[in-house]
Amino acid sequence: MKPKILIVDDEPDICRALEFLLKREGLGVASVNSGEEAVARLEKESFDVVLTDLKMGKVDGMAVLEKAKEASADTSVIMMTAFASIESAVEAMRKGAVDYIVKPFLNEEIKLTINKVIERKKLINENIALKHQVSQRMAGRDFIANSDSMIKIVRTLEKVIPTRSNILLLGESGTGKGLVAELIHSNSPRRDKPFISINCSAIPEGLLESELFGYKKGAFTGAQSDKPGLIPLSDLGTLFLDEIGDMPVNLQAKLLKVLETGEVYPLGDTKPKLVDVRIISATNIDIEGRIKEGRFREDLYWRLNVIEIRIPALRERKDDIEMLVRHFIGKFSEDHKKKVVGVDRQTLSVLIDYSWPGNVRELSNVIERAVVFAEGEYISLENLPDRLQNSGKNYQASTLKTYIGDYEKKLLLKMYETHNKSKEQTATALGIDLATLYRKFRKYGIEE
Questions:
Q1: Class level of CATH domain 393-444
Q2: CATH 3.10.450.50 holds for 4-126
Q3: DSSP string over 54-106
Q4: Is 377:343 a contact under the CB 8 Å cutoff?
């Protein structure tokens, strides 16, 4: 099915010219001559792209943008504007427009912009379809895989999940290693058996041994009854050892023996318990560095690291951020009984550009806070913590300058090509002197 385009402009000649041009590109095109007509059309019919003038009558391009987004979040809106109102066009982009074109424009510029938007929509739809396939296969809560790096992890998981091999998860704190461990267990043949998790760095050394291995009554002062350890309790299931790099060396030897023999000796007991347990371990430290320092046993490392999976930091998988934001908005809106449905374009750009030192855990925290403070249906910049608001203010100033600079460079190049690379003709067509043209060429690195 050919993509459908709606052209909105109060100048009939422009509508007719654009309709003729885009139909020749094989697109389905309709046009209207006012914002009122556009709004009425959008109520009855869906379009892939809306190409609308910004300055019209009572119902302007901003109103058309709002109606298009209200009718369908999948509709892409491109603004047409005079050079003097670029700032308004940039504001429209923050509210959801995908691009803008400055009048007067070249036919090639229109075709290039429309085709770029259509290709982008096609890629987004392919990603959504892939994400749906991933979620169906993996059935994991909060698991978002849209970036290439996360899709690669999904494909690795599909191969290792059905096995009983031990897995070592590496990655910074907050990247979701615990979530991946749960995902592995819940999709494995052991899904109906126990999944037990313990943080090796959160429990004092003296208690960690008894927690893992258990003890017999009278094994030490205060042992009033038998206590089963977490390893025996995980029998036939999965044991997740978080922060394994912080496990004391003496306990590492006991864990190694369990992995080698399948036998667990509770404290004070001379009879072993046989166990069949899959170990998933995780760490955010340089565990190979600890081996060199003598703080981690190399033989245990190779027992745990049959399959190694490295979870990328959020700043390395920015293609996942928009989907994660939408997911957390839905989750926390339901939790807090608030009608928050999305995030405005400027705020989303700030969220994507932020470095996220706390990774997915920090993003979850920020979105929950934003949902709590949101006064309307959309999260805005003022709902974010100060550290993100400050970066957003800097981003806003630089974004307008970048947009204008990008357009000026694009216009210079097009006019230069149109006039057969004659600087004199290009300067005349742009209404500037030759010296100014040379300065702008140097500014944008255009070959002279």
A1: mainly alpha
A2: no
A3: SS-SSS-HHHHHHHHHHH-TT-EEEEEEEGGGHHHHHHHHHTT--EEEEES--
A4: no
Yes or no: say if 146 and 131 are a contact pair by the CB < 8 Å rule: yes
For domain 315-384, the question of CATH label 1.10.8.60 is answered with yes
Long-range contacts of 24-29 (CB under 8 A, 24+ apart): 25/111, 25/114, 25/115, 26/2, 27/2, 27/3, 27/114, 28/2, 28/3, 28/4, 29/4, 29/5
- For residues 234 and 274, is the Cβ–Cβ distance under 8 A? no
Could you identify the residue written with the tokens 């709606």? 6
Q: Identify the bridge partners of residue 383 per DSSP, sorted by sequence position.
A: none
Ramachandran sector of residue 312 (left: φ over 0; alpha: ψ -120 to 50; beta: rest):
beta
305-356 pLDDT, tens per residue? 999 999 999 999 988 898 899 889 999 999 999 989 888 877 888 898 889 9
What span, in angstroms and rounded, lies between the C-alpha atoms of 143 and 125? 19
> So where are the chain's domains?
4-126, 148-311, 315-384, 393-444
Phi then psi for residue 329, to 5 deg, are -60, -45
Burial class of residue 232 (count of CB atoms within 10 Å of its CB; 0-12, 13-18, 19+): middle
Angle, vertex CA 153, rays to CA 147 and CA 157, nearest 5: 145
pLDDT (tens digit per residue) in 103-149:
877 888 888 888 888 887 776 665 555 554 444 445 445 577 778 88
Is there a contact between 170 and 310 (Cβ–Cβ < 8 Å)?
A: yes
CATH among 3.40.50.300, 3.20.20.70, 3.30.499.10, 3.40.50.720 for 148-311: 3.40.50.300
d(CA 73, CA 53): 20
Tell me the CA distances in angstroms from 289 to 293, 301, 303, one per residue in order: 6, 12, 17
- Chain segment 383-401, per-residue pLDDT in tens: 999 888 876 555 554 455 5
Q: Is the peptide bond before 266 cis (omega within 30 degrees of 0)?
A: no
Strand partners, 167: 280, 307
Which of 48, 43, 19, 46 lies closest to 32, judged by CA? 19
Distance of CA 165 to the CA centre of its chain: 30
